[in-house]
Amino acid sequence: MDSFELNKIAGAVLGTLLFVMGLNIVAGIIFAPHRPAVPGYDLPSAEETTGGGEAAPKAPAVPLPELLAKADPARGEKAVAKCKACHTFEKGGANKVGPHLWGVVGRQIAEVPDFSYSATLKEHGANGEKWTFEHLNEFIANPKGYMKGTIMAFAGVAKPEERADILAYLRTLSDNPEPLPTE
Question: In this protein, which residues make up the domain named Cytochrome c (predicted)?
Fold first, then answer.
């Protein structure tokens, strides 16, 4: 192999490297990435706590009684479609991953027989607490945040109006519906 052949091979390798480098520079100019002002992701900050160590409650923009007065049970029935994977809504319905929700408004917490509740819900039920509109509203908004230790794996419903529609629908699931709160 003579020096002319070696020069051709070296020229081809160097030419290829030069072409790839030039292609990289041109692509970087054409497809320049957008750099954020602050690198990274904005993570949610911890909620401020009160002296007792519990999270400070957030004041709702519109009081729950006003939201319930404007709520539509028909919209609530559509909104609970995401709940039907784990709950049944008909009278005498079977328990699934979660308990049946017939008559849940006004029912004592952790009262459904033949359902294994988390220790947190059992404790609330043993204290005689009932599923009031306020309890249900907070629980549906953020189950794990409202009742620490619950095993309900649901992120929650963020919109207060949608929660009010769901509560209005749940209220209809009873032979003797609970009265709406007035204040």
Answer: 71-174
